Amino acid sequence: MNAEPILQLDQLSRRRAGRPAVQNLSLHLASGQVLGLLGVNGAGKSTTLSMIAGALRPDSGSIRLNGTDFLEHPELARQLIGWLPERAPLWPELTVSEHLVAHGRLRGLHGVALKQAREAIIERLELQPLARRLAGVLSQGQRQRLGLACALLHRPALLVLDEPANALDPVQVAALRTLIRAEAAAGTAVILSTHLLAEVTAVCDRVAILHEGTLRHDGVVQADDHAALERTFFQVAMQGAPQPARAA
Ligand SMILES: Nc1ncnc2c1ncn2[C@@H]1O[C@H](COP(=O)(O)OP(=O)(O)OP(=O)(O)O)[C@@H](O)[C@H]1O
């Protein structure tokens, strides 16, 4: 494990539409860890993940990737991060395969390396039957799988997944869980937001709960202890009782 955490958020804040969306958020994540981000609608999960992915600039605070200030070196995001946004934007007139090529080029992959990366991710996410299909005609779940393939293509050190199980069928949800655990076992750090508590107990080592943009809980997840997580979620998120954040 690296001495520096792969991701370190320090006092991160961002206002949206004149209101605080994320306030003084401090979190860290080590290589190989899977952190689940929970919270009711509007709690600030997507805002947090967009800032980590470099798509939204914080108003204040810092983000460090492998110890380097990411706001001063935004090119780090392209190398180190794979991001699945909440609604992955796709070009409807490009095929699945062409999407992967375009994403690979944006991440600095070219020639043989790009071809190999594309073929590997198509095989891994079982996208062969869809490779020549236009993105504009994909089902929602198929679009989600393409978004996931784009996020994984360049083998990022940090995967940022915003509601990755959205629109996936039960077979694909099981495949997603296997994939996330395999990525973590290979040393990738993963941060994912979800509304599914079962997703957290199935794949996460740690859980952070946001409420009204602030961190209310940061703790270890007991594998498959759904009842304990549900209790914590309702105590912290629904009642919104301020609680001191606890480091994992
Ligand atoms: N594009 C936007 N423009 C203005 N305000 C926004 C925008 N997106 C989110 N917000 C506001 O920022 C706050 C945090 O929203 P965010 O989307 O980060 O929450 P979330 O926890 O991801 O919610 P959900 O579970 O509904 O996806 C909310 O008050 C929301 O209204």
Automatic annotation (TrEMBL):
Which keywords does this chain's UniProt record carry? ATP-binding, Nucleotide-binding, Transport
What name goes with this protein? ABC transporter ATP-binding protein
Tell me which family the UniProt entry assigns to this protein: Belongs to the ABC transporter superfamily.
- Superkingdom of origin: Bacteria
Asked whether the keyword NAD is assigned, the reply is: no
Q: Which GO terms describe its molecular function?
A: ATP binding
Pfam families on file: ABC_tran
PROSITE patterns, A to Z: ABC_TRANSPORTER_1, ABC_TRANSPORTER_2
**Residue ranges that the Swiss-Prot or TrEMBL entry lists as coiled coil:** none
Occurrences of domain ABC transporter (ranges): 7-237
- Write down the species: Rhodanobacter umsongensis
